[in-house]
């Protein structure tokens, strides 16, 4: 009898246990279905829900450019009234991910401004470098209230264009003047920093303490001490920054410190923005009564940003920005900059100012700047199914730098052909810039203007 009961119990166990396991497995699969992979991105999920992940992106921007050179320009010793060149404006790899509920990591690796003149210590094999390497911790799990981070990062104050997402910009290129200390006391706008950032209600904020690089390590000969202010070569103080945004409509994404250029109608954004950068004794100059005078660096801006759909059915949208910047680099500060300059010399130098050749203009200085841009996304089927659409734009930089006798105006007109959004796009851009010369009285006056045409192809995944 006991043997019969044991056999019955054993048969029931063999039948019931797999059935229970199968029911549990089926129930589990219903509760937590595996996420469907997004084939538009390179992403590896670290957990079942996909909330923990690691992602890789690639970006390349190729330029074909014709430029009317500044007067006196030379290329490798020969006069060049105009130039034509091919270059890589940016080549980047991003690697980042949410490793736990609270821990985030971000790297960016690549190079910038690579054309036939680009050299690294006389070697055309230009050195690529880490633009960003940061770690971040969310203090409140699942919320953006407070994130603490540190490392090499572009997170800073001043403006949204001081920390732009270059793969999503409206115009062909960012307004580089907003990266006010670029390659002076930073590494292509990145600094070694610790920061706090977050979103509380409609407020998006970031507060940053940076350890700026000495200007003597930027790979160029530092300017000599003179009566016009330049970055100090002897003092070292921390830099304090802050940026604040009041988001009236949709909240902007908060994954990385970078700020989107245009959402192409996918969001409804209206922001009021303001920011600052300050550093004690960052600048120096000489005077008649004192060999060396140290002054503080003080920069601030206020702006409004609009990006919204106009007609969702047609796919039309508008993007606009208007900002006011006040720059105090000390008395007489003025710096020329030419993006990926296609020239390397001049027979008509400006006394005390370097790099005035090629496509350069006085991009940075002590004074005030007004900057605005606007673009309109045309209907999504404008060019037929599968052929993308067009996004024309215009921008204006108007600067009143104290060392210039005449205000400076640089404007750009262009059109994006969005073959597949920001992933694949062609941009045709025309820029018109002023040319300045030294007058007998010592003033720097505008004498003429020059133009530049660029065709860019961007591929971004």
Folded structure, characterized:
It comes from Rhodocytophaga aerolata. This is Porin. Keywords: Signal. The protein is mostly beta strands. It has a single domain, classed as Porin (Beta Barrel), CATH 2.40.160. It has one helix and 23 strands. The chain has a 16-stranded antiparallel β-barrel. Strands 4-3-17 form a three-stranded antiparallel β-sheet, with no helix packed on it. A hairpin with a 3-residue loop joins strand 21 and strand 22. The chain is globular. The termini are far apart. 34% of the residues are buried. The N terminus is likely disordered.
CATH architecture term: Beta Barrel
Query: Pairing-aware structural class of the strands and helices?
Result: mainly beta
Envelope shape: globular
The count of helical stretches stands at 1
The overall pLDDT average reads 92
Could you spell the SSE succession in H and E letters?
Answer: HEEEEEEEEEEEEEEEEEEEEEEE
Low-confidence segments, given as residue ranges, are: 1-30
Distance between the termini: 72 Å
The amount of beta strand, in percent, is: over 45%
Domain count: 1
Helix content: under 10%
| Assembly state (oligomeric) | single chain
Taking strands numbered 1, 2, ... along the chain, how are they ordered across the largest sheet? 2-5-6-7-8-9-10-12-13-14-15-19-20-21-22-23
CATH topology: the name is Porin
Radius of gyration (CA) equals 27 Å
Q: Identify the CATH homologous superfamily.
A: Porin
The major beta sheet can be summarized as: 16 strands, antiparallel, barrel
CATH class identity: Mainly Beta
């Amino acid at each position: 009898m006991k043997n019969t009961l044991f056999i019955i119990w054993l048969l029931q166990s063999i039948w019931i246990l797999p059935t229970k396991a199968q029911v549990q497995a089926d129930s589990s699969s219903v509760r937590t279905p595996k996420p469907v992979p997004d084939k538009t991105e390179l992403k590896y999920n670290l957990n079942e829900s996909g909330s923990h992940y690691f992602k890789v992106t690639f970006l390349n921007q190729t330029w074909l450019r014709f430029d009317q050179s500044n007067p006196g320009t030379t290329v490798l010793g020969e006069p060049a009234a105009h130039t034509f060149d091919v270059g890589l404006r940016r080549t980047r790899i991003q690697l980042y991910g949410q490793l736990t509920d609270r821990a985030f990591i971000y790297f960016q690796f690549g190079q910038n401004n690579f054309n036939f003149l680009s050299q690294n210590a006389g070697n055309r094999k230009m050195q690529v470098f880490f633009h960003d390497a940061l770690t971040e911790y969310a203090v409140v799990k699942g919320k953006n209230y407070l994130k603490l981070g540190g490392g090499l990062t572009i997170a800073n104050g001043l403006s949204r264009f001081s920390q732009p997402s270059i793969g999503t910009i409206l115009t062909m290129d960012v307004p580089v003047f907003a990266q006010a200390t670029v390659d002076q006391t930073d590494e292509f706008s990145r600094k070694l920093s610790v920061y706090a950032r977050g979103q509380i209600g409609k407020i998006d904020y970031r507060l940053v303490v940076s350890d700026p690089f000495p200007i003597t390590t930027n790979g160029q000969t530092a300017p000599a001490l003179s009566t016009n202010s330049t970055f100090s070569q002897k003092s070292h103080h921390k830099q304090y920054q802050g940026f604040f945004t009041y988001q009236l409509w949709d909240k902007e994404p908060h994954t990385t410190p970078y700020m989107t250029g245009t959402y192409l109608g996918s969001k409804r954004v209206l922001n009021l923005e303001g920011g600052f950068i300050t550093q004690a004794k960052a600048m120096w100059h000489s005077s008649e009564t004192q060999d060396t005078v140290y002054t503080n660096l003080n920069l601030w801006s206020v702006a409004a940003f609009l990006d919204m759909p106009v007609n969702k059915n047609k796919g039309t949208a508008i993007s606009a920005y208007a900002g006011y910047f006040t720059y105090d680099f000390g008395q007489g500060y003025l710096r020329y900059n030419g993006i990926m300059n296609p020239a390397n010399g001049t027979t008509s130098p400006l006394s005390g100012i370097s790099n005035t050749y090629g496509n350069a203009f006085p991009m940075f200085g002590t004074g005030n700047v007004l900057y605005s841009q606007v673009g309109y996304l045309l209907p999504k089927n404008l060019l037929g199914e599968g052929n993308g659409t067009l996004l024309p734009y215009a921008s204006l930089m108007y600067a009143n730098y104290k060392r210039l006798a005449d205000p400076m105006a640089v404007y750009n007109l262009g059109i994006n052909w969005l073959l597949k959004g920001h992933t694949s796009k062609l941009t045709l851009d025309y820029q018109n810039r002023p040319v300045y010369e030294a007058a007998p009285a010592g003033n720097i006056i505008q004498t003429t203007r020059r133009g530049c045409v660029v065709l860019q192809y961007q591929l971004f995944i």
